Amino acid sequence: MMLIISTCKDALSEIEFVNPIVALVGECVVKRFDKVKPEDIATADHIIITGTTLQDFDYLKKKWDWLKTFKKPVLGICAGMQVLAMANGQKLVNAELIGVHQVTVTDINPFCEGSFNAYFLHTKSVEGLDVLAIVGKLPAMVKVRGKEQYGCIFHPEVLNPDILRRFVGKI
Amino acid sequence: MRLGVLYSGGKDSTLALLKAKEFHTIACLISIVSENKESFMFHTPNIEVTKLQAEAMKLPLVSVKTRGEKEKELKDLKNAIASAKRTFKIQGIVTGAVRSTYQATRIQHICHELDLWCFNPLWLLDQVALLNQVVKCKIHAVISGVFAEPLDKSYLGKPIDKAMIAKLAKAAQTHAINPAGEGGEIETTVLSAPGFKKKLVVKKSAIEYANHAGTYAMQEVVLK
After folding, report:
1. What does the domain layout of chain B look like in residue ranges?
2. Where are the domains of chain A?
3. How far is A100 from chain B (nearest CA, A)?
4. Which numeric CATH code is attached to A2-167?
5. Contact check, Cβ <8 Å, A98/B108
6. pLDDT computed for residue B17 by the predictor
7. In this structure, which topology does domain B2-119 adopt according to CATH?
8. From B96, which residue of chain A is nearest by alpha-carbon distance?
9. Average pLDDT, whole number, for chain A?
């Protein structure tokens, strides 16, 4: 079962940040971050943690400890990537990037290669995870060492839907 | 949350307004009237009727004129939103942006600078699905501008209904157009929608068309 965890505090934001991902990945279960139960995690074989709007930081108040031991594939998008970093003992740093910018892949990964444009919408970035791609000097894509947990600080649903399709095995 | 809607008077901003209204309070509309017909951000035929649309919805309207010079028009937009924040105590903005990262980026910057939430409830919505939602939500919109081949004079002034959606979807199969007009291929003006206490009635209009571009100008409109 594909589980999509929304980091959106506001239902109106979910229309913008969750629905486009659901449209791309197909059959899935959607839960807001504060409504996720242990059985939801236990029955998931892939998890996507979505982004949210710039003013929304409620997801940072939640403990995401299950990520420390979760063995199956996870893709964290924007806020979701921040969550991956925090859960794995890393720090967030203030770094604002809004709009379309060029991403350069720096390490082999299952989702993309070369350089491409992507849409960014964040005011915080991460440190301490393995970097797979960069935007300027910031990490654009990361991996948690030893786990199938990946992060995109940009929003692949906007300009790079194949990244999502590859994650869910549709390509 | 009290929200201001960036309102052009067309189907997209009206649909975005209706979606936002399901969750929040709409405190005001914000319209930018651009004198520049080439503006990427704001040019809309019949933008003047937003005054009547606001009156029909019994919502206050913050209407600001801009000469439409690139980047200067963004300052005018920021000033309009800041004015709406001061006057109507809004905490966020709603837009009808669908896929334009150019527009979305600029509005996100402004909202961030003004510490406002930004909501884009039509973001990445499929073009035909969007048109179907317009009809399903009982938004009565007419085509007020066409700006791409094969959209000709016959489209101008016509309503967005099921037959028109089929026609636009068919046109998109043979020509590189977005059926809902996301690339500026069509513009629309809403005459009535849920929340309108009165309807706009067009008493006098004029159609101008040449070289795959035309407008349906509403010259005299009344509320009934």
Report:
1. 2-119, 127-223
2. 2-167
3. 7
4. 3.40.50.880
5. yes
6. 98
7. Rossmann fold (3.40.50)
8. A16
9. 96
Are the Cβ atoms of B101 and A11 closer than 8 angstroms? no
pLDDT at B56 exceeding the cut of 80: yes
Domain B127-223 has CATH 3.90.1490.10: yes
Nearest CA in chain A to B16: A12
B147-189 pLDDT, tens per residue?
999 999 999 999 999 999 999 999 999 999 999 998 889 999 9
- Are B20 and A99 in contact (CB < 8 Å)? no
Beta carbons within 10 angstroms of residue A115's beta carbon: 10
CA dihedral B196, B127, A122, A4 (to 10 degrees): 100
pLDDT digits (tens, 9 = 90+) for B107-119: 999 999 999 999 9
Q: What is the ipTM of this complex?
A: 0.95
Q: Nearest Cβ partner of A16 from B22, B23, B123?
A: B123
What pLDDT shows up at residue B197?
A: 98
Opening angle at CA A157, ends A5 and A117, nearest 5: 135
Is B25 touching A (CB cutoff 8 A)? no
Q: Does the fold of domain B127-223 match that of domain B2-119?
A: no
- pLDDT over threshold 70, residue B43: no
In 10 A of CB B47, how many CB atoms?
22
How far apart are alpha carbons B110 and B113 in whole angstroms? Answer: 5
Q: Say yes or no: B123 contacts chain A, CB-CB below 8 A.
A: yes
Residue B70: exposure state from Cβ atoms within 10 A (0-12, 13-18, ≥19): exposed
